[in-house]
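Sample intake — HAMP domain-containing histidine kinase
Collected from: Rossellomorea vietnamensis
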Amino acid sequence: MNKISIKLAAYFTIAVFIMEGLLMLYLHDNIIDVRIQEEFQSILSRGNSHRDVLEDRYSTTTLHHIALMESKTETEVVITDKNHHVIISSKKLTKGMRELIDESPRSLPRGGRVIESNWKDMNYLATVTAFEKDGNEGYVFMFKSASPLRNLISKLNGHFLLAGIMSLIILAGIHFLLSKMLTRPLIRMKRATEELSKGNFEVKLPHLGKDELGELATSIKTLANDLETIQHDRSEFLATISHELRTPLTYVLGYTNVSLRDEIPESERKEYLTIIQEESKTIVTLIDNLFELAKIDENNFSIHQEEIQSLPYFHKIIKKITPAFKSREMDLILSVKDPFSFHADPIRLEQIIMNLLDNSLKYSKPGSTTTVIVRPHGTGGLGLTINDQGIGIPADELPKVFNRLHRVEKSRSREFGGSGLGLSIVKELVEAHGGNISIESEPEKGTSINIIM
């Protein structure tokens, strides 16, 4: 993960440095342009000033005064007649100055003109201004060495280069520290996920606020808790399945060995074979339920909803299971106020109802009554309530009744014969219909299960 902090620092540094480099290049060029223009304007202004003096009072004294004044400065002045013959100059003319004078245009604007602006290659910057006074016509040429300007710009380039290097170093340092701060939580989260992969679900992550990193840390904590729950449920599930299969198989094996003895009476042999048959049915039921849950988990089953008429559909189911209730001297009542139609998968809905009624049958006493209340819900929906007068469920067990292999009466599991999977299957099927299921119960008074779908 240290690599990501280096990458982030490098990316940020390169991006910001490119942006800063472009801005510095723009600033550098503008500063140089402004400074060059100021230099030209300064020379041109001095030439215009001398022109004004000559036009105001043209004389030999004035000419000498201008030449003497410029000899004490960094600039040089050359005053010529209209044919570019030199009248006076502050310093001796060079070959380059002479060429500039000869090549200078004769027609000029009142404000003068720059005649040499190549400060990079030429020795002089030069301007020319025309004057006219009482028939005296001529030109004022101003020259200034380009070396000071080149030196100034060279120093400026050095300052900008130094500033760029220092900015790069500072930016790299700042970005590296910032990337470290940003990636530190990611590194801790990576280590946490590594611990999760090793089976250590007690990971600890700091509170990182409500931003994306904070949400990611919360998600990892939630994942750790969920994985711990899944691991615990898996272990408990496997242990319970092993127990559930071992018990009936032990009965089957034991009574099979007893039944194979030659000396036992035939009546006892039949009794043992009946027990073997019952335990085999228990194993088959458990395996069928496990396969059903496996299909649900893998989405290998589908819900095919169709329009169902309430009265004939529920009468058929009640008629099918009523004999089982009568055999235990229990009453089963169907309550449908008005006929209506609804949409559901008829096969899966029957599976739901039969599971719930089977529970009522197992956990209710002779002489009790189970009521199935059917009612419409919304448009094309179904409301179903099953009330029994069974042994009920303690309040602390109610949140767990839909968990797989959870049974309230663990000590009496052999007596009631439940696998602890029926209500899990019911809940999965109801939710597959887009519905929900709730349960209310009170020990020794009965249980009420309500389904909306």
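Post-analysis note: The domain at 303-452 is CATH 3.30.565.10 (Heat Shock Protein 90).
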